[in-house]
Amino acid sequence: MTGPVALAATDLLAVEFSAADSLAPLLVTDALTGVFDWFLTAVVGGAFSWLAGVTGLDFLGYPYMQRAYLSVLCIGVVGPLVGSFLVYRDLSMVGDTLAHTAFAGVALALFLDATLGLAVPPLLGALVVAVVAALVVQALVEYTDARSDAALAMVLTGGFALGSVLISLTGGGISVGINQYLFGSLATVSRADVGLLVSMGLVVVGSVAVAYRPLVYVTFDETAARASRLHVRAVNTLLSVLTAFVVVSAMRIMGVILVAALLVVPVVTASRLGRSFKQSLLYGVLAGELAGVAGVTVAYLYGLAAGGSIVLVALAGFVAVAAGRRLA
After folding, report:
1. Domain holding 81: CATH number?
2. Interval 168-201: pLDDT, tens
3. Which of these, 95, 90, 93, 39, lies nearest to 67 by C-alpha position?
4. pLDDT tens digit string along 244-273?
């Protein structure tokens, strides 16, 4: 085959291959979405429906409650997992700082939608701004004379100030949409939110598993880590980014104001029980899971805010453990 016919055939094949290449990501995305929908409906829904039948608690069969429970189960793992490295480095306020800057990211996304018609997902805006804020904090500590607590305070107040200014620029028009991110909500957790949370959770757990030894080394002896030529800056950056992931993934349930609590309270509780760092990690995850499940249950039964209920249960657990250790 030669001449124009051959050229036409070649062009046709090129178009077909190009179409196939462009469709491949969509097919993969659709397949993953289908698998997750099956998991959420058949596995999670089936398990909770069975629990509802056994316990007589009908609310366990409600899809939105199943999504809420799955969310807090994920948060109960990743929060204490990352929070342990922060608490033992005296960086407990990092979570609170990134949460407040994530608020600015949500406000920015809603502002762009309200003023320019750009449909930016609020959680995406929160994630981008939180990651940038984490890197800014690290840069301030490394390249200026600012102490870590001062750098955190500046970024925290700057992020919250930016969010409040963006709200005022729209005449308060986006304040209604932002309230659910400030205080959290059970009813507004969608399938997409749960999917994002599970995905981020897998990324966080996988990253900590791969980089566990460097993270521990830098956490307990950063000077020795530098002397051994460990890339401390990369480890710090990884921890900052993972913290941003945890904060953003937990926002819909916990709310911006309280999300940092699950990075700190279960870890402090576990520190009074564990005899080693690994034991503290395990106990911290268990404390986070118990606080999350109990808090969501109390919030539903009594019509309370989910984030506040979870934090109060976590604090009650700390008080109980501290009192038990005191009396023992």
Report:
1. 1.10.3470.10
2. 887 666 655 667 777 777 777 788 888 888 888 8
3. 39
4. 999 888 887 788 778 888 899 999 999 999
Residue indicated by tokens 């009908």:
58
Q: Which H or E run includes 310?
A: helix 306-327
Q: Which stretches within the chain are classed as H helix?
A: 3-38, 45-55, 63-87, 93-116, 122-143, 148-169, 175-183, 191-210, 212-220, 222-227, 232-254, 261-271, 277-302, 306-327
Separation CA 248–CA 262 (nearest Å): 13
Q: Token pair of 325, please?
A: 């250790």
**Is 255 inside a domain boundary?**
no
Alpha-carbon gap, residue 126 to 187, rounded angstroms: 20
Which amino acid is located at 192 in the chain? Answer: A
Encoded tokens for 197:
């949370």
- Contact 111/138 with Cβ under 8 angstroms? no
The tokens describing 202, both together, are 């897998």
151 in a structural domain: yes
Whole-model pTM? 0.84
Per the CB < 8 A criterion, the answer to whether 65 and 298 are in contact is no
Q: Which tokens sit at 110?
A: 């809603």
Any domain includes 253: no
Q: Which residues have a Cβ under 8 Å from the Cβ of 127 and sit 6 or more positions away? A: 102, 105, 244, 245, 248
**Are the CB atoms for 316 and 286 separated by under 8 Å?**
no
Yes or no: say if 260 and 80 are a contact pair by the CB < 8 Å rule: no
Please give the residue range of the domain that contains residue 145: 3-9+16-248+260-327
Number of domains in the chain: 1
| Helical pair 122-143 and 148-169, crossing angle rounded to 10 deg | 150
Question: Token digits for 180?
Answer: 């659910």
The pLDDT tens digits for 122-132 are 888 888 999 99
Q: What are phi and psi for residue 140, nearest 5 degrees?
A: -60, -40
**Is 306 within the bounds of a domain?**
yes
Token representation of residue 45: 């829904």
Query: Which of 167, 142, 187 has its CA nearest to residue 300?
Result: 187
Structure tokens at 37: 């929908």
Determine the residue type at 271.
S
